[in-house]
Amino acid sequence: MSTPNILDSFRLDGKVALVTGAASGLGAAIAIALAQAGAEVAVHGNRRVATETAATIGSKAAAFQADLGTATGAETLFTAAHAHFGHIDILINNAGTIHRDAAVDTTLASWEQVLQVNLTSVFQLCQLFARDVISRNAAGKIVNIASLLSFQGGIRVPAYSSSKGGVAQLTKALANEWAPKNIQVNAIAPGYFATTNTEALQADETRNRQILERIPAARWGQPQDIAGAALYLSSPASDYVTGTVLTVDGGWMGR
């Protein structure tokens, strides 16, 4: 009796992935990794079209634009990507935004915008995805991008922290419901990564030093550092993993 090659369980041939927020940073790195594993990829940009990421991937990718800060953006995106590829097997909810301000000065409009992009649109896309996968009696993978602030309160980011705490809990709730339907729902909680969302922290000499002193790896994460975790949770290798929040943080949470 031959033993299956474990490396084959990381292949995504014949699968279609939708990656939100894939114009740059973590989303682009994830989209490229999934394509390298064999998937076709719908790459999404919120305001910036993800054409560069699509061009890097090549013929197996298509770029889509939709504003996830609106109530209709998620459905617009999912409908367009589904129409183009015919089906979607993997959903990566990476798109996010952040608003930095003291809690007493945070406006309701800013709060609602962050919650819409980071949490409500995630639920909307998960719901659309699951309805389609279940109707086809197929299997599916959802990977939500959470944060270290799913566990910690943060400073001057009340809406962001609330949204990412919600992403972690939503991940567990959906995993409980959809595991019997062969849909695994997991999340990745990135640590401090060198992306546009953290430019203010990187530029602040004091905060930058404090952050690096706390990270055992002693460096900011780079987008490619998250690619392997995303591939694992998107592949058959993780078929018995659901409802988990995987930290990719250079050791921050273990410090």
Provide the CATH architecture: 3-Layer(aba) Sandwich
Cα-to-Cα separation, first versus last residue: 45 Å
Task: Indicate the mean pLDDT.
Answer: 97
Q: What is the count of DSSP helices, taking H or I runs of 4+ residues?
A: 8
Spans of at least 5 consecutive residues whose pLDDT stays below 50 are none
* Percentage of residues in DSSP E strands: 5-15%
User: What is the total number of structural domains?
Assistant: 1
Across the major sheet, the strand order is 3-2-1-4-5-6-7
Instruction: Return Rg in Å.
Output: 18 Å
Q: Summarize the biggest pleated sheet.
A: 7 strands, parallel
What is the name of the CATH class?
Answer: Alpha Beta
Spatial shape: globular
What keywords describe this structure?
255 residues; Rossmann fold; seven-stranded parallel sheet; 8 helices; 41% helix; 15% strand
Walk me through what this model shows.
The chain has 255 residues and is an alpha/beta fold. The chain has a single domain, classed as 3-Layer(aba) Sandwich (Rossmann fold), CATH 3.40.50.720. It has helices spanning 25-36, 51-57, 73-85, 108-135, 158-178, 199-203, 205-214, 227-234; strands spanning 16-19, 40-45, 61-65, 90-93, 140-145, 183-190, 245-248. A seven-stranded parallel beta sheet has the order 3-2-1-4-5-6-7, sandwiched between helices. Helix 1 links the parallel strand 1 (16-19) and strand 2. The protein is globular and about 55 Å long. The chain starts with 15 loop residues before the first strand and ends in a 7-residue tail after the last strand.
